[in-house]
């Protein structure tokens, strides 16, 4: 039987961590052996353990701290090289990686792991193919070799520009890794991987995110608003980011500008629901009422906010295909988002949401206005959203595709 060990930054935090845990539990519920090794454990799951512990915890902190300080990010954590002695590693047939950037894992260990195990790597962002950044925006240096990076402050932040060296080191490490299998959750990411010089000979499979549509379901929005303490007649916008303005990639700056362009009569009715751990600075700059939920990891609370939102707005400047869009749509909540990355694969203009011209604030305001004021259109979109996710992005479909892939890899 196929036995899988997942390696992830976290078991239930952040988009990649939540995806990893969803796949892990989905496989386990299907009767498969599934374990997780993580950098940060968030759940009480006995099938999840931390990589760095005991004596390795201090060694990792020292080595990682020194190397990160000089810009040699995620090159060496001693505990990573001890994984080959882990019982779960030895019991498994397949090692499935998620985000391995997160200051807990040495990507230089991949050749060693691949000597005895099949390595499957699910790409949540562009980090595996760049000199350091998770998203390269308008920069295409990653295609030929990085260096003189314009985005050192972008996640994961790099204190010194060693991007040229890191790019070359990644290339060398991947060349020494036996038969690395790549999984992408969006067609956009598949195209990005094919453009990279790193993985010309590797097999790349498209398996989109899956949503538990039994939990993330649509309901009466008026009752949902009342449940979280809002007025049933409020027009609600959902925005997810730790920082409204400081987290630039999420596009909060564009959202604020778009909100300020709305008619005053509409602004008086709007409540902006913000999910994120950060504080809101200068809340007086926000032209509408704010409902701040803080960081949420409990699925039930997250579900309440999706259901209470009339629309979700995602003016992100760079994106793969986030869980949040699919979860919102599964709850019958249309999405207003920039036409970027994998987003147009699910946000179909005037069918499941409003696809906004990239960085066009006027168009963003137009989309928000339209979906909040045309109830017939937004209700129709909500039904389309739900059907679209059920037909194409269900959890059962995702798990079955992984099971099919594992079976194929074991035979070939």
Characteristics:
16% strand; Rossmann fold; 412 residues; 2 domains; 7-stranded parallel sheet
Can I get a quick summary?
The protein has 412 residues and is α/β, with parallel strands linked by helices. The chain contains 15 helices and 13 strands. The protein is 37% helix and 16% strand.
Describe the structure.
The model has no long low-confidence stretch (mean pLDDT 95). Helix 8 crosses helix 11 (299-308). This protein has two domains: 3-210 and 394-411, 3-Layer(aba) Sandwich (Rossmann fold); 221-392, Glycogen Phosphorylase B (Rossmann fold), CATH 3.40.50.2000. The longest helix is centred in the last third of the chain and has 18 residues, at 375-392. It is an alpha/beta fold. The protein has a seven-stranded parallel sheet, with helices on both faces. A six-stranded parallel sheet has the order 10-9-8-11-12-13, sandwiched between helices. It is built from 15 helices and 13 strands.
